[in-house]
Every structure is written in C-alpha cells, then in structure tokens.
Design brief:
The protein is built from eight helices and eleven strands. It has about 220 residues and is α/β, with parallel strands linked by helices.
Length: about 220
C-alpha cells in the first residue's frame, strides 16, 4: 500500500503492522494509528497510546521541567513513550537509563520506534529487580512503569524492592510509580503498595489523572 494512502487511512482505522509473542509479555502488537506507531499487549497499551497521555499529564502535574533532573532511571522502558515525552515534547536533556527485561520489546523499540536516535539514553536489558539490587548509581528522578499486560508483578510492590529504589534516589529526588487499579485484586495490591510506602517512612501523594491509573509520587527531603 502507498505510504501516503496508508497514513491517510490510519486516521480512519488502525493497521496492525507486526505481531510477535514474548515469553515475558505474551502477545505484542505494533499498530499504526493516526499516523503514529503504537505498542500494545493483549489487554493494555505499552507505549504511545494512553500511557503516553498519562505521562504527559504526570510530568506537567509535578512540573518536571522546572525540576530539571540531571539523571532519570526508567524502570520499564517499553518502546520509549516516556523517553519521547521527555525529549520530543519537553525538550529535556536529562541523562536517561532505561531498563527493560523483555528483549522482544527492545527489538520492537529499535525497529519501529527509533529508540536509538535519542542521545543520552542508555538501554539496559535486565530485570528491574536485579538492576536496583546490583547497581549503585543515584538518580534525580525514578519512574517505575513495570507491567505484565495490565498487572504490576507482585515483586515490584514489595517493601524490599521499594527500599532499593529509594536507595538509588538522590537528595531532593522524586520517585513516580504507575499502577492500574481496575479489578478487586489490583485495588488490593495498590493498598498493599501504599502500606509499604508508609512502612518505609515515605510521604507520598496519589495522582488520578487518566482512567484506572493511579500514580504514586514520593520525594526525598
């Protein structure tokens, strides 16, 4: 199909460009919708859809540009939607370390989303829990966006994982944790997550900016 025609038709209905199956995330699909690529799992948007809109709102709400962090740790790189918000929309030059466990997701990010074009982005292929347990870097901002489909794996809401994340946060840093609380089980998990923040002595606020997403924001002082 002619690329001009395809681009026009993408505003009327979406085109599925690629489907592959990941051992970690199951079915992954790249769609071309409204002139842009989007990465979806079977039940959730992973990059450049609702997730993109959510973090546009989050970064505006916390006034991230005014904070101007020198370094940012992104746990759950996906196809680079959050990186795109930071670089293409907010024009931030923050050094970004993007951690992604799924090599299939990294492959799609490179092939369809041009993730390698961003200067100052380091991609680390490893489980986020392993990264925070073995790395000793400090970051001014940590964004946690760790999902298998629509669910945050249990190990990422545990007190031990959160404590390790805070150990990587610099003085006067900010931590952002994205969570979906749609089902009874997810809501119970979110309550456990909040209790673990409290148990660590961390003050936080919850942003409800888009749909079923609840975003915890905690700062060091």
């Amino acid at each position: 199909m002619n690329s001009i025609v395809q681009n026009f038709l993408s505003y009327i209905w979406g085109f599925r460009i690629c489907t592959l199956y990941s051992a970690l995330n199951g079915k992954l699909e790249v769609w071309y919708i409204s002139g842009k690529y989007r990465l979806d799992s079977e039940k959730a948007n992973y990059s450049f859809g609702s997730l993109h809109r959510l973090f546009q709102k989050v970064f505006r709400e916390i006034n991230l540009t005014a904070r101007n962090p020198e370094s940012l740790l992104l746990l759950g790189l996906g196809a680079g939607s959050i990186v795109s918000v930071l670089r293409d929309e907010l024009n931030m030059t923050t050094r970004i370390t993007g951690v992604e466990h799924d090599d299939q997701v990294i492959q799609l990010a490179r092939e369809y989303f041009g993730i390698d074009r961003y200067k100052g982005l380091t991609i680390v292929h490893v489980d986020a829990a392993v990264f925070v347990a073995t790395n000793d870097q400090k970051f001014d901002c940590i964004v946690i966006d760790l999902f298998h489909d629509r669910n945050v794996p249990e190990k990422f809401i545990q007190r031990s994982f959160l404590d390790q994340c805070f150990r990587h946060l610099s003085e006067k840093g900010i931590l952002i944790f994205n969570y979906i609380a749609a089902t009874k089980r997810q809501r119970e998990g979110f309550e456990e997550l909040k209790r673990n923040f409290v148990a660590l002595g961390r003050e936080f606020r919850v942003l409800e900016l888009l749909g079923e997403n609840k975003v915890i924001v905690a700062e060091t002082s």
